[in-house]
Design brief:
Blueprint (H helix, E strand, L loop, with lengths): L19 H7 L1 H5 L17 H16 L2 H5 L4 H15 L11 H22 L3 H19 L21 H10 L3 H14 L7 H18 L3 H10 L7 H19 L10 H12 L13 H17 L7 H13 L9 H11 L4 H17 L1 E2 L2 E2 L3 H16 L2
The chain binds heme C.
The site of heme C has 24 residues, from helix 3, helix 6 and helix 7.
């Protein structure tokens, strides 16, 4: 199941490439001590300079990202290889920036590093289709960090959409990943407007709607704007399931507008998680796969990220990780990423003594069970079971 594809990943920054089992066996002290910034470069509001290097290499790769033919052409081989290698190397250094020294950023960085390394490796091995897929997916690694930061200002770099290759949808995906949200949203909207169910790719329509939704909720914090927009896109010709989704989103947006305003930068972690519990409640842990909570999940997790970004790492509690995991399960990769398991593991590994660790464990083992349930019953692979058992012992040992 897609949302569990990262279940085996390690969570501690200095040990990123070590397998999860080895990690859990040898590195717990390092994990529990996460979050000491030390004297690393970069302030808490500065754009980490590596981002401009990322941007430069990604821009060079963009035309190859969207064309199978160009990506495979021997004539481009050297150029692609060079940029992939550089990106993979850079992604390995993200931990040097103190601004990025947050659990939730670490997890996204790890995702990015994994995708880029796979892209570079498989490209060298001649597996170009897979390499191209990994490269495209690495953009989700970029956005999964970026979507955690609210933006008020425009990016400090300017892009003309003509400089990018591909369709509106493909260009939008690139700009969205590189934090050029306003232009990305315009392109997604233009794709949505022109969309013809008979001619265009259905599989690009829904992700476009979801990107526009997360733009309004996460980046702009503007439920009103979202309502206006989703009201305006009504079209009779749209498939039934899209109509239904649109209606449900509008309903949730009206509910969000009614919730009390809070400022995550000013409240305590306890206050915030109480607020979240009141507004999410037990309904969130049930019926995970329907669409009736997605907008709320986007909105509430946005508040949590805003808290994380404005408080020192030591204030991040297991309850925050737990709720991020719960919300992430509601949101598929079109909005963000499947980070849920990673948050749950971090909750257990970093706070084994806390009562929340048990809840995190329960949630994680339920998810794993669901993921490995097929027509022949539950069939959890031995290594996955072993890693779960290790987490369980961790909670029990520390009592
Ligand atoms: C570990 C988290 C993380 C990852 C992964 C990440 N970024 Fe960033 N990026 C940030 C943060 C934080 C900022 C600053 C945002 C702000 O202050 O508005 C940023 C800003 C940017 C900017 C905006 C610069 C500007 O002037 O506004 C660009 C461009 C960028 N990143 C490119 C990338 C690309 C391309 C990737 C993927 C290859 C990537 N980033 C991956 C955290 C990350």
């Amino acid at each position: 199941m897609a949302h569990l594809r990262l279940y085996e990943k390690a969570l501690c920054w200095p040990l990123l490439s070590i397998s999860a089992l080895a990690l859990l066996a040898i590195s717990l002290p390092a994990c529990t001590a996460f979050g000491t910034a030390g004297s690393k470069p970069g302030s808490s509001s500065e754009v980490p300079p590596v981002m401009y290097q990322f941007l430069s290499h990604m821009t060079k790769l963009q035309p190859y990202m969207v064309s199978r033919k160009k990506f495979r052409s021997p004539e481009n081989h050297q150029q692609i290889l060079l940029n992939l290698d550089e990106l993979a190397k850079l992604s390995n250094k993200l931990h040097q920036y103190s601004r990025l020294n947050k659990t939730t950023f670490h997890i996204s960085a790890e995702l990015l590093e994994d995708r880029l390394q796979q892209a570079a490796k498989s490209f060298k091995e001649g597996k170009t289709a897979y390499a191209q897929r990994m490269l495209r997916e690495s953009l989700t690694g970029c956005s999964s960090c970026h979507i955690q930061v609210v933006t008020k200002s425009s990016p400090s770099w300017v892009f003309k959409k003509e400089q990018l290759s591909g369709t509106d949808y493909e260009r939008a995906a690139f700009l969205y990943a590189t934090r050029n949200y306003d232009i990305a949203a315009k392109l997604y909207k233009s794709f949505i407007k022109k969309f013809n169910p008979k001619k265009d790719d259905q599989f690009q329509y829904e992700p476009s709607l979801k990107k526009v939704l997360s733009y309004y909720i996460r980046i702009k914090r503007d439920p009103n704007g979202a309502m206006q927009y989703f009201r305006s896109i009504y079209k009779k010709s749209l498939p039934k399931y899209v109509q239904k989704r649109r209606k449900s989103w509008l309903k949730q947006l009206r509910e969000i507008k009614k919730t009390d305003k809070i400022s995550p930068t000013k409240v305590s972690a306890d206050y915030l998680t109480k607020f979240i519990r009141t507004h999410a409640g037990s309904e969130f842990t049930r019926d995970k796969y329907d669409d009736s909570k997605t907008v709320k999940a986007l909105y509430l997790s946005g508040l949590l990220y805003e808290f994380i970004n404005s408080h020192p790492q030591k204030d991040i509690t297991p309850a925050i990780l737990y709720w991020l995991a719960i919300f992430d399960e509601r949101l598929d990769a079109d909005y963000l990423n499947d980070l849920s398991e990673l948050y749950l593991r971090q909750c257990i590994v970093s706070f084994p003594k806390n009562p929340m660790a048990k809840k995190c464990y329960q949630q994680l083992s339920d998810n794993i069970e669901i993921a490995f349930t097929g027509s022949a019953g539950v069939n959890i692979p031995a290594d996955v079971q072993e890693s779960l058992d290790k987490l369980k012992r961790l909670i029990q040992d520390k009592k």
